[in-house]
Design brief:
alpha/beta; Alpha-D-Glucose-1,6-Bisphosphate, Chain A, domain 3; TATA-Binding Protein; seven-stranded mixed β-sheet; 18 helices; 27 strands
Length: 553
């Protein structure tokens, strides 16, 4: 079929629908090779464009973290958007757009939503992973009702609609400007400008610049991923930090062969710099799509659950939050450190399932201002995604005002609120049957565990976490097995929804020591009895065949 503008639009038949396009915690995430199967990406995009409301005549934001496959995917999405009657696609130079900047762009452009090409912290390249995240008009990850409808649509697809680009047409992705493809306008903009302006509204850049000009040395690791250009413009540009402050700042298609996951295992270079060396007062890193953050001080690692609590306790030091907070929220496996702060501040604290999409309604309704997850995710109502660089700027803001070290902030926080010793143990790439066998066995045992003794305490409640959204009343079940102990400690087991090889088991461990108690233990030692007890109960080592976790946070 030719449109009035002469664009050729056709339907490509699918011999058989794909059966494995079920979005996990954060969109559809698979190996790059899987996405290279003919029609695979197209099938998921077709289902998305059929399900998302407002496609005809609407605006769509498209961009990604720059990993291998990004440019091809943008080309496919643009041509499919044209075939589905989208009027305007907004993308960025090089197709490079961080997840938080995409969230902002969706909100500021009045788009119907966005498609973000990223497998986040998973490695990239031909042998790595690729991913497609679908966000709605509020800028946040699409709610489950939408992702389930997309999945259902993929199961019955018979074909997909795509425009054939006229001879000689190519998307000029590397230049700011706009290109027409039949009735569709593709705008290529600078992906950093709007985001940086928003950061300047939320934080006192003068105060932070003064801190960075003094003897306060900072190291930021962009992990060869999308945060690089933003971090360079912010830290080395506007805030005047010395050249070289941003490490690995040029996005590469395979993240320099690394794993763009800002934790102690994969960002070990930065961790060693801060934890063993003396040269730097502050260190931070972001993940592949720049929605995660890791915060380090000299000889000090800030646990992400603690980071959310510290930001909450110090929020009014930032101009954007000077009026105080409406409320806060954390994902269920995140430690209750923020709960204690919220209680003292007299604000509400919500506990949601894992995944940023569950914060969306609370943010939209104005019930919460800050929220976060133990998995290095922190954010606020400024957008509808977690935001790595925002968290780094927030920490710099606090340090600029308080003029003390990160370690001093932590010590003071714990001595006032008590300390939630916390750790997450990940067992990655376990054979799927072994992982599900372990998990299902534990699930079957839950009711019998109530009242049993565990690590010298008593299990006060054992359940499979379920959540009812306080705004729209929707319920979500099966969100993680919780053992809540009578002294406030707990152990949670979950299977990851973002892994791409076999299954990943996450074990979350937490134990609270009130002010006045021993606040200076090593977390692994403080949690040692819980670690041992859950291994025995869930038969982790025996069933996975692994004698230690792949990653300990
Ligand atoms: C993980 C984290 C979760 C986070 C999700 C997406 O999910 O645990 O807290 O929201 O990744 O983060 P899972 O199901 O593997 O535990 V990202 O940076 O990939 O957008
Ligand atoms: Co991410």
């Amino acid at each position: 079929m030719a449109t009035s503008t002469g664009l050729q639009i056709g339907t490509v038949p699918l011999e058989q629908p794909f059966s494995d396009q079920k979005p996990g915690t954060s969109g559809l995430r698979k190996s790059t090779r899987t996405f290279e199967i003919p029609h695979y990406l197209e099938s998921f995009i077709e289902a998305t464009l059929r399900v998302v409301p407002g496609v005809a005549g609407g605006t769509l934001v498209v961009g990604g973290d720059g990993r291998y496959g990004n440019r091809r995917a943008i080309d496919v999405i643009v041509r499919m958007a044209a075939a589905h009657g989208i009027a305007r696609v907004i993308t960025c130079t090089g197709g490079i757009l961080s997840t938080p900047a995409a969230s902002l762009l969706i909100r500021s452009s009045g788009a119907i939503g966005g498609i973000i090409l990223s497998a986040s912290h998973n490695p990239g390249g031909p042998d790595g992973d690729f991913g497609v995240k679908v966000n709605g008009a509020n800028g946040g990850p699409a709610p489950e009702a939408i992702t389930e409808a997309i999945h259902a649509s993929t199961l019955t697809l018979k074909g997909y609609r795509i425009a054939e680009a006229p001879d000689g047409w190519a998307l000029a992705l590397d230049r700011i400007g706009s290109t027409e493809l039949g009735p569709l306008t593709v705008e290529v903009i600078d992906g950093t400008a709007g985001y940086i302006t928003l950061m300047q509204q939320l934080f006192d850049f003068g105060a932070i610049a003064e801190l960075l000009r003094g003897d306060f040395a900072m190291a930021f690791d962009a992990m060869h991923a999308v945060s690089g250009p933003y971090a360079q413009a912010l830290f080395e540009g506007l805030l005047g930090a010395p050249a070289g402050t941003v490490r690995h700042g040029v996005p590469s298609e395979d993240f320099g062969g690394g794993h763009p996951d800002p934790n102690m295992t994969y960002a070990h270079e930065l961790a060693e710099l801060l934890l063993q060396g003396d040269a730097y007062a502050f260190g931070a890193a972001c993940d592949g799509d720049a929605d995660r953050n890791m915060i380090l001080g000299r000889h000090c690692f800030v646990n992400p659950s603690d980071s959310l609590a510290v930001l909450t306790a110090n929020a009014t030091l930032a101009p954007g939050y000077a009026q105080g907070l409406a409320g806060v929220a954390r994902s269920m496996p995140t430690s209750a450190a923020v709960d204690v702060v919220a209680k003292e501040l007299g604000i509400a604290c919500f506990e949601t399932p894992t995944g940023w999409k569950f914060f969306g309604n609370l943010l939209d309704a104005g019930r919460i201002t800050l929220c976060g997850e133990e998995s290095f995710g922190t954010g606020s109502d400024h957008i509808r995604e977690k935001d790595g660089l925002w968290a780094v700027l927030f920490w710099l803001q606090i340090l600029a005002k308080r003029r003390c070290s990160v370690a001093e902030i932590m010590a003071e926080h714990w001595s006032h609120f008590g300390r939630h010793y916390y750790s997450r143990h990940d067992y990655e790439a376990i054979a799927s049957e072994a992982a599900h066998g372990l998990y299902d066995r534990m699930k079957g045992m839950l009711s019998a565990l109530n009242g049993q003794s565990f690590a010298g305490r008593t299990i006060a409640m054992a359940d499979d976490f379920a959540y009812t959204d306080p705004i729209d009343g929707s319920t979500t079940t099966g969100q993680g097995l919780r053992l809540l102990l009578d002294d406030g400690s707990r152990v949670v087991l979950r299977l990851s929804g973002t892994g791409t090889q076999g299954a990943t088991l996450r074990v979350y461990l937490e134990s609270y020591v009130p002010p006045g108690g021993d606040l200076n233990q090593d977390p692994q030692a403080a949690l040692g009895d819980l670690i041992e007890a859950i291994d025995t109960l869930a038969e982790i080592k025996a069933r996975t065949g692994m004698d230690r976790p792949t990653v300990i946070t």
